[in-house]
């Protein structure tokens, strides 16, 4: 096989996941001499660092170098495509998008058509419009460039790869169900534990924010959109042409009165007045011997996707979840009544970067 | 990339897994036009079917054709290597070993050195001597041929691929623990359920045999060797140079007095006399509020592997397992105190073949 001897890597995004990825990339390039991995581009939304002649950047110090030696604002996305598609003859290019930016996601078809493979945890490309989804996979199929996005659902947990394997080998996925948000997992495991009483809803949200488990404004977790995006991706991989993450029922846990308060802090301040609502949900489940959880589910046969609160028996694996773990159950024809289950941390910089790095390794084996 | 346009596939073994694999291969070759998949060889231990000029066999009828049009006893393994390594120029060859034969496993280095990739659920190659393990992976690295064996542990569950991803991305796997045998899972979930009393040990073994969950002689499950082989494979992938599946403590559930009785039937007949032993184990666990399960564990730091009975809290995921499911927990540095867990059916022809087919798809993408 005429594998590329050198692979040029461009990294967009240098936040928590970007840093963890670069650390894993530095170790990978030391452990595996072939193909030779060259970091040639790195940028944030405000800065960029690269050389017109593809002189390798130092992977270990790239983020510090970006801070001190940046060449200035990043080029427009088509210029980055042009740069990465002009790497020296006989070599290949991969772009690693560690952002959650829609504009970068929108440019994926450009990268792919130019023969540049993509690995990313960015959910936006795969949960945006169905037209973008089709454009991405058609562009990849045409050029032969690869696109991998394991960490777009469940971080480094083997969720996307397992679903792809089930579908690719001809199994019929009938239902996918699970807890897809580390934040929601933590909140409900604390608010409505299988053992003990649990705290008040507003107090648990406040605690989750203090522990860094929520977005800066907790409403960005409580609106359910993050879970809806992940469900959109899985449903599409299972064969449902879901139009967008807002084209199916998604239950928001933000009281209507607090939708438009101006800040996350104001939201947290006013949330206790609505504790009775969530307490009622919890008590109603308890009366049936159950606990309430925030889940997503896909009924493939019926073509239905939904996100929201559901009740589970105390012995159900979803009820027994711990900490901020995710759990994803795949019900399929081959697996019968007992689903294939994947469980574990579904958020965090290191495990998210792990999904990106293992995707990169799979791409390197194919280009 | 100069991918092979045609891939010639030789299948060794046409039992339950072989049949299920061929059915999945037929569907795959219809769904994916590229690369062109040609079944050119199929054999059991007694018969074989192939054409010297590589005329394609009919995938859908191959097993029937083997029964009626067989060219006779299969060639010696070096002859099969020679045949598959002489496929038309520009094409590639993959051998699919659906047997559990040691002699086929011993020939893997020959296949790999000849550039023939291997996909297999056969545990023997990877759990035999450490010298064979090294020979296999050195041969593959030298020739560039691929070797994939997802179904050698947990059937189609993503166990091997997940462990490889953890290791390849630089995570430190500290501990692996789980229920690795569908038979043992079924036996203990019935014998010592978390709810209800459970049956007598000998009755549960008899029932498991009647349901087809055991080997023809149940002692081949109860001796623990099947679990020990899987642990050997995982331990080696995690970096421990385990010499063989008998080089660490493995608890056999066969009473010493019944080790040498002449048949499985005689064993089952005499087993009730030893029920008190297992009842004592069960009662002792119950006194601690626990249940007993047959598990395997690998402590990577201490270099320790062991297989046998252990007690678990009723709320532990291992205790809560259902039916004949497997569960495998990976404790790693990145995942912290909550492990990455994979759970589901770990045996059965269809899900075993699924692991083989998805391995084949990965190989096809790389050769």
Give the key terms.
homodimer, 367 residues, alpha/beta, 6-stranded mixed sheet, 5-stranded antiparallel sheet, Homoserine dehydrogenase (chains A, B), NADP (chains A, B)
Can you tell me about this structure?
- Two copies of one chain form a homodimer.
- The first copy, chain A, is of the alpha/beta class.
- The model of chain A has no long low-confidence stretch (mean pLDDT 95).
- The first copy, chain A, contains 15 helices and eleven strands.
- Chain A is globular, with a radius of gyration of 22 Å.
- In chain A, the strands form two sheets. A six-stranded mixed beta sheet of chain A has the order 3-2-1-4-5-6.
- Chain A has helices at 16-31, 62-69, 77-84, 102-106, 108-113, 124-127, 130-143, 160-168, 182-191, 201-210, 219-222, 225-237, 264-270, 275-287, 349-364; strands at 6-12, 36-43, 48-50, 92-97, 117-119, 147-148, 173-179, 290-299, 304-313, 325-332, 340-345.
- The first copy, chain A, starts with 5 loop residues before the first strand and ends with a helix.
- Chains A and B meet through helix 1, helix 8, strand 11 and helix 15 of A and helix 1, helix 8, strand 11 and helix 15 of B.
- Strand 11 of chain A pairs antiparallel with strand 11 of chain B.
- Chains A, B: Its EC number is 1.1.1.3.
- Chains A, B: L-homoserine binds at residue 215.
- Chains A, B: It holds the Pfam family NAD_binding_3.
- Chains A, B: Belongs to the homoserine dehydrogenase family.
Set out the fold topology.
2 copies of one chain form a homodimer.
Chain A: E1 6-12, H1 16-31, E2 36-43, E3 48-50, H2 62-69, H3 77-84, E4 92-97, H4 102-106, H5 108-113, E5 117-119, H6 124-127, H7 130-143, E6 147-148, H8 160-168, E7 173-179, H9 182-191, H10 201-210, H11 219-222, H12 225-237, H13 264-270, H14 275-287, E8 290-299, E9 304-313, E10 325-332, E11 340-345, H15 349-364
Parallel strand pairs in A: 1-2, 1-4, 4-5, 5-6
Antiparallel strand pairs in A: 2-3, 7-8, 7-10, 8-9, 10-11
Helix pairs in contact in A: 1-15, 9-10
